[in-house]
UniProtKB/TrEMBL annotation:
<protein>
    <submittedName>
        <fullName>Twin-arginine translocation signal domain-containing protein</fullName>
    </submittedName>
</protein>
<dbReference type="InterPro" id="IPR019546">
    <property type="entry name" value="TAT_signal_bac_arc"/>
</dbReference>
<dbReference type="InterPro" id="IPR014177">
    <property type="entry name" value="Formate_DH_TAT-contain"/>
</dbReference>
<dbReference type="InterPro" id="IPR006311">
    <property type="entry name" value="TAT_signal"/>
</dbReference>
């Protein structure tokens, strides 16, 4: 014969839900802070000639790449 000494008030389910909700909100808050801290833009210093120089060159390698991807 087994006797259960815990009172059956029905509050354990609510307490468990509150705990799980608190853990979920805490994790979401920590993730939001991490993303905010990480999302700062990087500043790169470029000289004026670097800003105006052309960067894209249509070489044979590039032409071959586009030709193969048209399929």
């Amino acid at each position: 014969m087994h006797r259960d000494d815990t009172p059956k008030t029905g509050r354990t389910g609510l307490e468990r839900r509150s705990l799980l909700k608190g853990l979920g909100l805490g994790a979401a808050g920590a993730a939001a802070v991490a993303v905010t801290l990480r999302a700062t833009p990087a500043e790169v210093e470029e000289s004026q000639p670097e800003r105006v120089k052309s960067r894209y060159r249509e070489t044979e390698h590039v032409k071959r790449f586009y030709a193969l991807n048209r399929l």
